[in-house]
């Protein structure tokens, strides 16, 4: 269960039980929720979800002005401590630097939201190696790095969570998105394996598998390229973040927003592989020269 750190006068009837230990004593800052890719898209919506629950935040994204603006706006709106680190998570030793930043300031992190990720679609022989590597580094390597550095701290907490953002596409090897879906498959398998390793600890591991989410302009282009079926599965980032946090509260392992999305994944599991791959190739051919 994810704690609700708001004081009683900030709550409305029906809210989750207050975390009395913090609420009833002098103001001791509760541990922080660290969210990567927090400056926009699903990550920014995660910030609002945890801020609503009174969690102090640490936002991580590229060192752009919008990160600082997001941190200031959230801190003002919810009256909670919010700090941010602008860092390129694909750079060497970036996860270690994020961890050192927390060590230097005495921040305790009890929820790690590994959300930052990028995706490019194109025929593999036309895709630049720089783009391939940036997907591998951000979507897989940085997530493992952050989990590695923060796990000892998470294990010391009375209750902790690590969330990994994968994708509905994780278990569907998609033609023309071969590297992206492989990075998401890596994250998916890593999260499930880690969950099992940590089963007897207080650290809960979750993996998110959303379908298309309307976030950036590039994503919109990709959703539109898929026509009606892309729009049927589409969710807003607000819906995805709200659903995911609710499911984390219920300790759900694999979080797939959308009934139709869950149904399609179930169907896909039961199709013969060569038949499934040829359907997927036809469905995703529109990304060939994207
Ligand atoms: N959108 C979808 O359809 C969809 C579907 C399934 C899964 N997902 C996954 O959900 C996650 C979030 O997607 P989104 O669509 O919300 O993304 P988005 O709107 O493109 O935002 C990406 C976030 O990651 C940050 N970021 C990008 N490169 C970074 C880097 N090298 N180092 C540090 N931060 C970096 C961005 O910072 P700046 O603002 O500074 O660029 C931004 O905060 C990703 O893992 C994605 O793969 C998305």
Look at the structure and give the CATH class: Alpha Beta
Tell me the β content: 5-15%
Number of extended strands: 7
CATH topology: the name is: Rossmann fold
Q: Which series of helices and strands comes N to C?
A: HEHEHEHEHEHEHHHEHH
Rg, please?
Answer: 19 Å
Average of per-residue pLDDT values: 91
Kindly report the spatial arrangement of strands forming the biggest sheet: 3-2-1-4-5-6-7
Keywords for this structure?
11 helices, seven-stranded parallel sheet, alpha/beta, single chain, binds NADP nicotinamide-adenine-dinucleotide phosphate, 290 residues, Rossmann fold
Explain what you see.
The protein has 290 residues and is α/β, with parallel strands linked by helices. It has a single domain, classed as NAD(P)-binding Rossmann-like Domain (Rossmann fold, 3-Layer(aba) Sandwich), CATH 3.40.50. Helices cover 49% and strands 12% of the residues. It contains 11 helices and 7 strands. The protein has helices at 20-24, 41-52, 65-78, 94-105, 129-155, 178-197, 217-225, 228-233, 237-249, 259-269, 273-284; strands at residues 32-36, 57-61, 82-86, 109-114, 160-165, 203-208, 254-255. A 7-stranded parallel β-sheet has the order 3-2-1-4-5-6-7, sandwiched between helices. Helix 2 packs parallel to helix 3 and helix 4 (94-105) runs parallel beside helix 5 (129-155). The longest helix is centred in the middle third of the chain and has 27 residues, at 129-155. It starts with 19 loop residues before the first helix and ends in a 6-residue tail after the last helix. The model is unreliable at 13-26 (pLDDT under 50). Residues 37-43, 61-62, 64, 66-67, 88-90, 115-119, 138, 165, 167, 210, 212-213, 215-216, 219, 237 line the site of NADP nicotinamide-adenine-dinucleotide phosphate.
């Amino acid at each position: 269960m994810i704690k609700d750190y708001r004081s009683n006068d900030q709550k409305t009837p029906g809210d989750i039980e207050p975390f009395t230990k913090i609420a009833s004593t002098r103001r001791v800052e509760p541990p922080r929720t660290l969210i990567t890719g927090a400056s926009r898209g699903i990550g920014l919506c995660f910030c609002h979800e945890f801020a609503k629950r009174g969690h102090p935040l640490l936002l991580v994204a590229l060192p752009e002005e919008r990160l600082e603006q997001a941190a200031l706006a959230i801190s003002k709106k919810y009256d909670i401590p919010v700090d941010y680190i602008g860092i390129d998570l694909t750079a060497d030793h970036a996860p270690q630097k994020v961890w050192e930043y927390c060590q230097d300031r005495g921040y305790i992190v009890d929820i790690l939201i590994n959300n930052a990720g990028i995706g490019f679609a194109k025929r593999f022989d036309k895709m630049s190696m720089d783009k391939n590597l940036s997907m591998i580094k951000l979507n897989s390597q940085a997530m493992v790095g952050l989990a590695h550095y923060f796990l000892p701290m998470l294990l010391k907490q009375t209750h902790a969570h690590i969330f990994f953002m994968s994708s509905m596409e994780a278990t569907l090897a998609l033609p023309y998105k071969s590297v992206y879906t492989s990075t998401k498959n890596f994250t998916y398998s890593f999260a499930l394996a880690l969950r099992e390793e940590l089963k007897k600890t207080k650290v809960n591991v979750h993996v998110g598998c959303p379908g298309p989410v309307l976030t950036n302009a590039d994503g919109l282009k990709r959703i539109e390229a898929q026509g009606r079926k892309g729009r049927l599965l589409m969710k807003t980032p607000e819906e995805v973040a709200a659903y995911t946090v609710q499911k984390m509260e219920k300790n759900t392992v694999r979080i797939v927003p959308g009934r139709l999305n869950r149904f399609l994944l179930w169907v896909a599991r039961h199709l013969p592989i060569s038949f499934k791959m040829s359907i997927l190739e036809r469905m995703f051919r529109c990304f060939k020269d994207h």
